[in-house]
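During the practical work, I worked with a single protein chain and the tokens that describe its fold, as given directly below.
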Amino acid sequence: MSRAVIVFPGRGAYTAAALGSLDAGHRFVREAEQLREQYGLPSLVELDRADRFDPQVHLQPAHSAPLTFLTSLLDAEKAGMDHDPVAVVGNSLGWYTALAATAALRFSDGFRLVQEVANLQQQRESREDHGGQVIYPLTDAAWRRNPALENAVTTALGAGDGEVFRSVDLGGYTVLAGSEAGVGRLLATLPPVTVGERRFPLRLALQGPDHGPLAEEVATAAASILVDLRWQAPDVTLIDGRGVRFTPWSTDPAQLAAYTLDEQLTTAYDFATSLRVALREYAPDVLILPGPGNSLGAICGQIIVAEGYHGVRSRSDFEAVQRSASPLVLSMRR
């Protein structure tokens, strides 16, 4: 079996293409439906089987987070049958999925973590000054680092008057966040740039100012609500948003809980570093990307290129490897 690193996506991965992803008969889905009923929330299966994707409904944190979590777990279960997972990483919400996938949290506790944090985020976003996130590229279309774009980000952060901060490092892209005023400054300050068919800076739909100081209220409330979660060492190494490893043989469950319910929410999430650690320390044959969607495909490719992993040093190199019999990235929902 190939040595694999499992890479879980964030909440924004659940889009129109993901409709119909859930197996209503799977034990995880059945248990999730029972828990949703206890919360007084709509059925996830019904949302997943909707005739059309409604962004104002499906992208609400209370719905999109558990839909993403469940789809990812179902895919990860299948991946474990064909590959030997040697490490697990996740982007933002994907960290919570990783906890459940590696048994650091039981399924019910992992689902509660996802749902409670999402509920708190949705309550925050109902306020007039809820803030948000903006994504901006750091490379050109050929995935070459562009110092001018990096300087533009530094300048925009410096002009943010304390209202903006770095939220997620995706390697070839940066996600910035801030208050409503801060988001406005970012959109006005960052130079417009087109990469492929997408125009940047781009505000992410229904995303709040996560992974920074404006998430402290959510973190405090979550830590209080979720004090009874049952933590344990993972059965596969986890690599968090700092690049810190939690191994099956050395994890302190209390430290894992403390990171998840505080620093993971209130400081920048460095996905690029977590994946670099996985590549350097575990030398996987392949990266497995569970669904929904394929939001991390190019992002993982950019990090592989930046690392020169397996001699891949350009976008064209990466695309050639992906066309070969032994691709480095396998997207389960592409």
